[in-house]
Automatic annotation (TrEMBL), chain A:
Transmembrane segments: 12-30, 51-80, 141-164, 171-189, 216-241, 268-288, 294-313, 320-337, 357-381
Record's bilayer topology term: Multi-pass membrane protein
UniProt keyword Cell membrane, yes or no: yes
Main location: membrane
Domain of life according to the entry: Bacteria
Name under which the protein is recorded: Amino acid/amide ABC transporter membrane protein 2 (HAAT family)
Pfam families, sorted: BPD_transp_2 (PF02653)
Organism per entry: Allosediminivita pacifica
A single GO cellular-component term on record: plasma membrane
Subcellular location: Cell membrane
Single GO MF descriptor: branched-chain amino acid transmembrane transporter activity
Automatic annotation (TrEMBL), chain B:
Keywords from the named record: ATP-binding, Nucleotide-binding, Transport
Organism name: Allosediminivita pacifica
Protein name as annotated: Urea transport system ATP-binding protein
Taxonomic lineage of the native organism: Bacteria, Pseudomonadati, Pseudomonadota, Alphaproteobacteria, Rhodobacterales
Pfam families: ABC_tran (PF00005)
GO molecular-function terms, A-Z: ATP binding; ATP hydrolysis activity
Transmembrane segments: none
Domain ABC transporter: 5-246
SMART domains: AAA
Length: 404, 246
């Protein structure tokens, strides 16, 4: 048997990375930071955010398209990653502001006074001036970065363990994941959740200690970081879904019971996939929200996770680049339509206003793709690529069979 | 020949219907055993109980030299302990190649991290080819399992069973959909396997059972009606009444 290298077996990896690299370089050259200013800084941020959405979409594709678990809660993990990094960003920046304002004081402030001042700055809006316990590590960038990975990872691990152990599958599991993200969002909406209720965390675009650096430069840095994370995520997931692991995961999707009778503990595999994708979703969120500037509980509302599933379905389940393309196309079109980019159509008796009608168009596209193009946008690649290199063998085998 | 699997006093009901009724059954290693019985006799439920899919209401299921109870083990744990199952309807992974199907079944550590870090070895590849040759699918290794004919899928599933290297093979209607030549090959294969392993074959086809030339257990309404050689059981009055004389 030919033991070809991992990259040779997965040519899409190199194509994908090349496309990301060209895209990132192109966007950089056209940005205000490069001096050309062909695209605005806010558009660079939109592109950077899109890369993060592509990353969470490929994670969703692994859990749904490959492993068959229709999770409608993965944006909760994305949001938790955002909250984790947002806590540090807000704390560290407020600390600098407070330090500046207290510097003028005649009596040097005690550490307790500094801490109280920071707390009342951050939490005054929800009527408290005490740090909730979940902010214990907010002063440490390192620990909060750890939280970006740990919080979504542990939540997914515990939730997945409970759900998979009880053999909850199919639509019941989807409902359960919706309940999880709904519960999380409702909890976060409360003022005493410790995360500023419906105000959420804001000002995340301002990096502490880097006030002198213009947003044009910051946006390019995040664009690159997002592109790097997307490329690494793609390689990671391409590796997971290739080889024997991929075989077992797709087996779980197609016939869970059969995999079990082969001696594989299906629940462990589901838990592995669920957790690793949740961790990647958390990382994607941690890169997204500093570019968005604000995170609030609406971001983890159930609808966000449903959109994620729609992107993956439209892009094409079961192939990573399909999910990434779906996320990019649909989310960019969505912001184009809803921000008034698309001209309204005057029908004489009725004006089609795209900000209202975009959702209808998206819904119709989703139904159309599901019914008529189950392979999604990614399926278009099959038209160009001779995908089946085994074809000569198979043709030969069929001919022999016919002869028999 | 030592006893490998022993069921005693096993009963299970579904919504008041007693699918298995005080069933006792033993099989040694090595041994070839055919189970026959009319529809609804409990043949498939018997396999479900042994493989852990169904939990009996009463009775014990004891496995191996250490006499461990299978009733507390999960399906995957039972499979790893050495019980392999071939389903009546061929169930292979249709969107994967024949090679991938066999590789998945190949006896290797089954944990997620073992599998993630698994490296293809020349040894494993040789074993896959050996099994594929055995079941006549050597030329079809790169094909999608879904493209195979019904008979070939049966063979692939038998190949997957072999790849697992189980001690006890539960084979449900292996000859369904096979040509006479293929049936003969199947009988030879099962008889050869039974020299070293315990093999339980559930079959409707009397001719096939006769060719297996082994001890036969007749199931009826969830319990054993008769046991012995085929010639012996077909003379049994009750067996004739419930099964053969239909």
């Amino acid at each position: 048997m030919k033991n070809r290298s991992f990259l040779a077996q997965n040519p899409s990896i190199l194509w994908f990375i090349a496309a990301i690299a060209i895209f990132t370089l192109g966007a950089t050259l056209m940005s205000e930071a490069a001096g050309t200013g062909l695209i605005s800084t806010s558009f660079v941020k939109t592109l950077g955010k899109t890369l993060c959405l592509m990353l969470v979409a490929i994670a969703m594709d692994v859990v749904w398209g490959y492993c068959g678990i229709l999770s409608l809660g993965h944006m909760a993990f994305f949001g938790l990653g955002g909250y984790a990094i947002g806590m540090w960003l807000m704390y560290a920046r407020t600390e600098i502001i407070v330090a500046e304002s207290l510097a003028a004081a005649t009596i040097p402030p005690t550490p307790q006074e500094v801490s109280d001042a920071i707390a009342s700055q951050i939490f005054g809006v929800v009527g408290t001036n005490k740090f909730p316990w979940i902010w214990t590590f907010a002063d440490s960038l390192f620990l909060q970065l750890l939280m970006v990975v740990l919080v979504p990872g542990l939540l997914a691990l515990v939730f997945g363990w409970l759900a998979f152990r009880s053999r909850v599958t199919g639509v019941y599991l989807s409902i359960l994941t919706q309940a999880m993200t709904l519960a999380l969002s409702l909890y976060l909406f409360q003022n005493d959740s410790g995360l500023r209720g419906n105000n959420g965390l804001s000002g995340l675009q301002n990096l502490p200690g880097l006030d002198g650096v213009p947003q044009a430069t910051v946006s390019i840095a995040f664009l690159w970081a997002s592109a790097l994370a997307l490329a690494l995520g793609y390689v990671l997931f391409a590796w997971v879904v290739s080889g024997k692991m991929g075989s077992v995961i797709r087996g779980v999707r197609d016939n869970e019971a059969r995999v079990r009778f082969l001696g594989y503990h299906v629940e462990s595999y589901k838990l592995f996939v669920f957790t690793i994708t949740a961790v990647v979703a958390g990382i994607a969120g941690a890169l997204y929200y500093p570019q968005a500037g604000i995170i609030n509980p609406a971001e983890v509302a159930p609808i966000a996770s449903i959109y994620l599933a729609v992107w993956v379905a439209i892009g094409g389940r079961g192939r990573l680049y399909g999910a990434a393309i779906g996320a990019a196309v649909v989310s960019l079109l969505s912001s184009w339509f809803t921000s008034g980019g698309a001209p309204n159509i005057d029908l004489g008796i009725y004006v089609i206003n795209w900000t209202d009608w975009w959702l209808v168009l998206l819904g119709v596209s989703f139904v159309a793709v599901t019914l008529f193009f189950p392979k999604g946008i990614g399926g278009l690649f099959d038209l160009f690529i001779r995908n089946d290199k085994r074809a000569p063998d198979a043709v030969e085998a069929r001919r022999r069979e016919a002869a028999e | 020949m030592s006893t490998l699997l022993e069921l005693s006093g096993v009963s299970v009901s579904f919504d008041g219907f007693r699918a298995i009724n005080n069933l006792s059954f033993q099989i040694g290693e090595p041994e070839l055993r055919a189970i026959i019985g009319p529809n609804g006799a409990g043949k498939t439920t018997f396999m479900d109980i042994v493989t852990g899919k169904t939990r009996p209401d009463e009775g014990t299921v004891i496995w191996g030299e250490k006499s461990v109870s299978l009733l507390r083990m999960s399906e995957s744990h039972i499979a790893r302990a050495g019980i392999g199952r071939k389903f009546q309807k061929p169930t292979v992974f249709e969107s994967q190649t024949v090679r991938e199907n066999l590789a998945m079944a190949l006896k290797n550590p089954r944990g997620p991290f073992d599998v993630l870090l698994y490296r293809k070895s020349a040894q494993g590849a040789a074993r896959i080819e050996e099994i594929a040759a055995e079941v006549g699918l050597l030329d079809h290794l790169p094909r999608m399992a879904g493209e195979l004919s019904h008979g070939q899928k049966q063979w692939l599933e038998i190949g997957m069973l072999l790849a697992q290297e189980p001690r006890l093979l539960l084979v449900d209607e292996p000859a369904a959909g096979m040509t006479p030549a293929e049936r003969e090959h199947t009988t030879d294969l099962l008889k050869r396997l039974a020299r070293k392993h315990a093999v339980v074959v559930v079959e409707h086809d009397m001719e096939f059972v006769r060719r297996l030339d082994c001890k036969v257990t007749v199931l009826h309404e969830g319990s054993v009606l008769a046991e012995g050689s085929l010639d012996h059981v077909v003379k049994n009055k009750e067996v004739i009444d419930v099964y053969l004389g239909r």
